[in-house]
Design goal:
- It is built from one helix and 20 strands.
- The chain folds into two domains: 11-111, Jelly Rolls; 122-230, gp9 (Jelly Rolls).
- Helices cover 2% and strands 39% of the residues.
- The strands form five sheets. It has a seven-stranded mixed sheet with strand order 12-13-14-19-20-16-17, with no helix packed on it.
- Strand 1 and strand 2 form a beta hairpin.
- By secondary structure, the chain is mainly beta.
């Protein structure tokens, strides 16, 4: 059988991106509304011309089921928001890559993360709560590191498939990394070095959010917290 070689973007009817990469640029400190030649790609690297003075939207088409992998490669230090012409979107901090999806034809959320669902109940903690030991219902942890470094431990005795999400709610992780230690003998995948596991990891990116899922069969039966999504 002969090989099939493809180049450029491949899609359904020219409206649903499957493959392809595009570099797009925010210019003149304004929102970026993508045209078809840009959004008909799956991988989007968003750059800037050096003029950004605030967060800006990257406006995507509102097709139900549409998904993108987007890198915020802007240089001025501001987040971008992956969003449609209407509805809600996903904030992507500088230097971070996120996978986003439009599940309903109206809004964009982070793929695979109920952390963006309205039903998610966040437990907000700060330095006075450190070291934080989560209870059975503490699944989504929002951290305020404004007053110093905060430690938010992984749950003890996790169930198979249990999830745990920690985010930098106040954009302070670049200054005060959020420590996320495991309970022995568990280990966790490092958000800064995916594929590497350690007894304690940290969120260091401004506005960073990491979500882990527990695999009890890894680490010779000691259990691993596997990085499920990272933005």
């Amino acid at each position: 059988m002969a090989d099939i070689l493809l180049g450029g973007s491949v899609g359904s009817g020219g409206s649903f991106p499957i493959l392809g990469k595009a570099v797009v640029e925010i210019v003149d400190d304004t929102d970026l509304v993508l045209i078809l030649a840009q959004w008909a790609n799956y991988f989007l690297r968003v750059t800037s011309d050096g003029s950004m003075t605030s967060e800006h939207d990257v406006v995507l088409p509102l097709f139900e089921g549409q998904s993108y992998e987007i890198t915020n490669a802007t240089t001025e230090g501001f987040p971008i928001v992956a969003i449609g012409a209407t509805g809600t979107g996903v904030e992507i901090p500088p230097g971070v890559t996120a996978i986003v999806v439009c599940p309903d034809g109206a809004n964009y959320v982070m793929l695979g993360s109920s952390a963006d669902d309205a039903s998610a109940v966040w437990t907000d903690i700060n330095v006075t709560d450190s070291p934080f030991v989560p209870g059975p219902t503490d699944t989504f942890i929002g951290v305020d590191g404004s007053d110093g470094q905060v430690s938010a431990s992984f749950p003890a005795n996790p169930a198979p498939g249990q999830e745990y999400t920690v985010k930098d709610s106040f954009g302070q992780a670049g200054l005060n990394p959020i420590l996320v230690p495991c309970v022995s003998p568990n280990e966790a995948e490092d958000p800064n070095n995916p594929g590497n596991y350690a007894p304690s990891v940290a969120i260091t990116s401004q506005g960073g959010c990491a979500r882990w899922k527990f695999d009890p069969n890894a680490n010779e039966g000691g259990g691993h917290w596997i990085l499920f999504s990272n933005m």
